[in-house]
Structures are given as structure tokens and as C-alpha cells.
Specification:
- The two termini are 17 Å apart.
- The protein has helices at residues 13-26, 40-47, 65-75, 109-117, 135-140, 148-157; strands at 4-9, 29-35, 53-56, 80-83, 93-98, 122-126, 143-145.
- It has a seven-stranded parallel sheet, sandwiched between helices.
- Residues 103-107 have low confidence and may be disordered.
- Helix content is 37%, strand content 22%.
- The protein has two domains: 1-85, Rossmann fold, CATH 3.40.50.2300; 86-158, no CATH class.
- With 158 residues, it is of the alpha/beta class.
- Helix 5 links the parallel strand 6 (122-126) and strand 7.
Length: 158
């Protein structure tokens, strides 16, 4: 089976490198290009590969993320765009990771509530027992998964 090709746009170097390493190490994904700002399209052209998925940090400091999203939609009409920050109204879906390092509610309140307001599916990946998650999270989440593998299988079925 072909690996899912990913364009990763994240301005935080540690997050960018960590996400890229995690995806590349998974085996089902191929990170075809990475960028820390609006040079994403150039990075993609240099790679010579078209992505299936764009992981876009909507809080970029050097570029207007919403303008970049518009450009990416025009340049890559077949790619699914997944927002990795707040303001997900233009994203196809919102994926949240809730792990041991996550602060209770930090960084997800805006994502979940805004996504729900705009009618976007919110998929959460967590192994945290459901009873330990705040009720507002459960109220906003469309579906929960125990692993990224389970989430990927679900999304590929769609």
C-alpha cells in the first residue's frame, strides 16, 4: 500500500522535527516537504512530490496562515488540509492529540469549540480514560481514537 504523502508547515522547530520524525518512523507516512513559513509551496516544488495531506500550523509568525491556506487550496486542490492550531474554520477536519504532556484544556479549548461551531469534524487521539477528560471536550469531539493508526484507517475508509 502506498504511503500517505505529507506536507508539514510548522514554525516551531522542535515540533516540526518531532512531528516529521514521528510520521516518517510510522511507516504509513512519507513527509515529502517541510517548511517553517510561507515557503511551503517552494519546498514542495523542490521535493517533486504532491502531498495527500497538508499539516498546517495556523499560528505561523512569519506568514499569514489563512492566506497560505488559500494559496495551498489553489495549488493543491486534491490535498486534505488539517489545521494544527486555532481558527479551524477553513480546515477539513481538526485532529487533537491529548497525551500525558497535555495540560488539562491548554491549547484545545479554542480548537475544539471553534471547530464545532463551524461544523468541522473533531477527531481526538488519546489513550486517556474517557472519565478523565473534561465534559466540554467530550461534547465537542466527533470521534475518539486510541492511536493514529486507528484514526488513519477511519479516514481512509471515508
Amino acid at each position: 500500500m502506498a504511503r500517505t504523502r505529507v506536507l508539514l508547515i510548522e514554525d516551531n522547530r522542535l515540533l516540526r522535527e518531532g512531528i516529521a520524525a514521528m510520521l516518517d518512523g510510522h511507516g504509513d507516512f512519507e513527509v515529502v516537504a517541510v517548511s517553517d513559513d510561507g515557503d511551503a509551496v517552494q519546498a514542495l516544488k523542490e521535493s517533486g512530490k504532491s502531498p495527500d495531506v497538508v499539516l498546517l500550523d495556523l499560528g505561523l509568525e512569519k506568514a499569514n496562515s489563512l492566506q497560505l491556506m488559500t494559496l495551498l487550496r489553489a495549488e493543491l486542490p486534491e490535498a486534505r488540509i488539517i489545521a494544527m492550531d486555532i481558527l479551524p474554520e477553513q480546515a477539513d477536519v481538526v485532529v487533537c492529540l491529548w497525551d500525558d504532556g497535555a495540560h488539562r484544556g491548554a491549547g484545545t479549548t479554542g480548537e475544539l469549540t471553534i471547530a464545532r461551531r463551524f461544523g468541522k469534524p473533531v477527531y481526538m487521539v488519546t489513550q486517556t480514560p474517557r472519565e478523565e477528560l473534561p465534559g466540554w471536550i467530550l461534547g465537542c469531539v466527533s470521534r475518539m481514537f486510541d492511536s493514529f493508526t486507528e484514526l488513519k484507517a477511519y479516514l481512509l475508509e471515508r
